[in-house]
Amino acid sequence: MKKRQLRWMKLDNAAKLYPAAKRRDWSNIFRLSVTLDEEIRPPLLQAALDSVIPRFPSIAVRVRRAMFWYYLEEIPRAPVVIPDHSYPLTHMPFDDILQCAFRVLYYKNRIAVEFFHAIADGNSGIIFLKTLAAEYLRLSSHIEIPCTQGVFDITEPPREEELADDFPKFSGRVKKSRSEETSFQLKGTPEENSFRNLLIAEIDAGEVLALARSHGATLTEFMVAVMISSFLELQEERVPESRRRPVKVLVPVNLRRLFPSVTLRNFVLYCMPGVDPQLGKYELDEIIKETHYQMSLDISAKKMASRIYANVKMEQMKVVRILPLFIKNFFMKLVYDLTGEKKSCITMSNLGVVKVPDEMEPHIERFGFTLGVQHTSPNNCGMISYGGKLYIEMIRSIKEPVLEQKFLLKLRDMGLHIKVESNYSHDQEVNSE
After folding, report:
1. Where are the alpha helices (DSSP H) in 317-372?
2. What pTM did the predictor assign?
3. How far is CA 58 from the centre of its chain?
4. CATH code for the part of the protein at 172-430
């Protein structure tokens, strides 16, 4: 058998920050999962993973150090699939990332993949997960699944355009200012041993979409506005009026929807809608309108291209290119500490509706999407829809569930029926009565 030629790749423009921003006890990782209608058989999952990784040479990688930059190196064989941990997104030490930058886990009938963010974003990660699930079902249930709806043909070689860093390709010509005021930061009592509390809210997608449209907003805009309203109330309860800061939510934007790109690398930027309580009191309807108009104005090809330009231009500066890696890391970590997490209250990422080939649908119960908490910000929120249900996954590294309570009670009071499950309390119903 001919030995497979392993590739190496530069980190894409967005990924360069993630290795620099790492800490001894924190790395920027996220999790995607799929729940099947049968208990997972580890040997078959391992066989499926072994077959799938050659099709994804930009994901099946390890991070390596060079003199001037980190880079990605394709791994020669798949990692061993492992039982899931007692809580999601347990710390992925950087020494592990230097060996393999993702891991595949199983628990009962659930498959989960946890990615170091430098190798993929949620949009490319979901393609990897769907392809892995399709191959597992082919082995376990002997069904043929067509390569549609984001399921890749693993017998085909990867395309070069899938491996490209598309940030320089779609860079604009004018730099847009990225100056942002520091936002309100929620604090709490840290959990022991880096434990992560996870709450999953299940809502009928049709109901919440109808509610959002009744307010003149998309589903994402509506949920972000409710989150802003929740943080405003928490700040009012905790901070004197004269010291209150803006409340903003960081919303990742899938640039593939704005530019003709099929890359499986990171290709996401963000917008940051919010309000300033120093201007006066905001009612929810007003917040929804503000969020809708801010996101509508920010999410355009021209504005995102100008933001790409700012990032790419800095990377291409000669003085930056010749600096040794340890100096680059020092300054990138400094910038991240001073600006990265302090400009928003929380990240709220919506991967949208997941579609799979018809042949897979009877075997899939749901998908999940969990963002890791940031180093200093204790809460994060991922959303994903499948089978007519919206799943909101709220994770935190502090003991107090104040944000989840505030957020979900607001949704309940607007008439939504919410089923809640968590790893820290019994499953329960949050009804509209």
Report:
1. 318-321, 325-335
2. 0.94
3. 17
4. 3.30.559.30
CA atoms of 13 and 167, how far apart (whole Å): 6
Tokens 């009565």 belong to which residue?
433
Structural domain spans, the chain: 8-152, 172-430
From residue 130, alpha-carbon distances to 57, 115, 348 in Å are: 16, 15, 22
CA distances from 153 to 20, 138, 382 (A): 34, 13, 28
Tokens coding 119:
């190798």
pLDDT at 322: 61
Neighbours of 265 (CB within 10 A): 27
* pLDDT tens, residue by residue, 271-309: 999 999 999 999 999 999 999 999 999 999 999 999 999
Quote the CATH superfamily of domain 8-152.
Chloramphenicol acetyltransferase-like domain (3.30.559.10)
> Which residues, including other chains, have CB under 8 Å from residue 99's CB and lie 6 or more apart?
62
Q: What is the pLDDT of residues 27-53, one digit of tens each?
A: 899 999 999 999 999 999 999 999 999
How far apart CA 166 and CA 282 sit, in angstroms, is 39
Q: Which helix (H) or strand (E) holds 389?
A: strand 389-396
Structure tokens at 241: 């009026």
The pLDDT of residue 73 is above 70: yes
Do the beta carbons of residue 265 and residue 124 sit within 8 Å? yes
Asked if the domains at 8-152 and 172-430 fall in one CATH topology, the answer is yes
pLDDT at 429: 45
Is residue 20 within 8 Å of 328, Cβ to Cβ?
yes
Task: For residue 408, count CB atoms less than 10 angstroms from its CB and return exposed for 0-12, middle for 13-18, buried for 19 or more.
Answer: buried
Rounded CA separation 366/102 (Å):
21
pLDDT of 426 higher than 80: no
